[in-house]
Model the fold of this input.
Amino acid sequence: MKRIHFLYMGILFLIAGGILYSLERIVAHIHWTALVGTGEYPQFPPLEPFTQNLFLPLFLVVGIILLIIGSRRTD
Done:
């Protein structure tokens, strides 16, 4: 593969990880808002840690590796 393909794939992996992380946080806030309506809710929304979902760190690591490979290639 050419250099530009590695760069594009790295950027896409980073964007996919960011979108996935954002969607998880949005779902947690929506769930918390629904709990507020019932009267039994925690003070803050229950947010999962970053490493709870295996795909987030995986996408981050793969994206960074692909960006490094793409930046070091000379074709």
